[in-house]
Design a protein that fits this description.
By secondary structure, the protein is α+β, with helices and mostly antiparallel strands. It contains six helices and 15 strands. It binds 1,6-di-O-phosphono-alpha-D-fructofuranose. The site of 1,6-di-O-phosphono-alpha-D-fructofuranose has 14 residues, from loops.
Length: 280
Amino acid sequence: MNEILKAIKLAAPKIADALKYADKGYATSENQTGDRQLKLDILSDEIIFNELKKCQSIKAIISEEREGADEINPNGKYIVAYDPLDGSSLVDVNFSVGSIFGIYEGEAIASNLKAAVYTIYGARLELVSALENEAVKLYQLGKDGEFGFVKEIALSQKGKLNATGATQKGWSETHAKLVRALFNEGYRLRYSGAMVADLHQILLKGGGLFSYPATTDAPNGKLRLLFEVLPFALIYERAGGEGVAANGTRLLDIKVNSFHQTSPCYFGSKYEINEVKNSL
Ligand code: AFP
């Protein structure tokens, strides 16, 4: 596991650098889910892939930007699934974006998720980890090029932020009512359009709700289980919060049938997730 964390720590500064200086234009290709790719999506994917493939403990690598799994070491223990540049459609406006990693033991299914890590490329380069049997920890890249430990992250019982995605005209009445009820209670709207940044804000500000609901045009939501939803579900649970699907099911209990499977998702502290459950 340490070997994988080290590889992520080597890849992240290279991506942060690419975000500053590399070409921000579109490539001519699309990824597996039909999203138009930036040259930076492809470059970030290559940077991460090239570091991860050196790890003896990795059996296979699954990337949001690639089709299928790449087998690395037949005797490796882990499968690493990652989103190399989450929120990349915000690169042009210089918003914070990130990379998300789920580390699965054996098969890539929810119950095998052992650890999750994300990096966030903002004014600072930060890394958040939830390793096996460990608390959620925040690190920051220092001038010396090393990630220094900053603090452990724990959610309060109740927060103040409400971040909800997708096109509102496609929301269900249940979702719209939930969102309205939280605003009526005094919650503040915070939504950048990069889940890493929005979930990071809620974690560091102590709590709130992030939701990406089912919509009429995307009944299974948009966010992908293996590289986006499950890693954050693990991090939120470890931080004392919860992650549930639209029907209230624990996200970490969802059956994964395909690499690019999506699910509606709700992440938050205990109070907000109870509100989600009560709204059903
Ligand atoms: P991009 O990586 O294409 O920018 O998408 C970002 C994302 O997957 C996730 O980070 C956001 O929460 C979500 O999509 C935003 O989608 P909406 O614009 O539909 O709310």
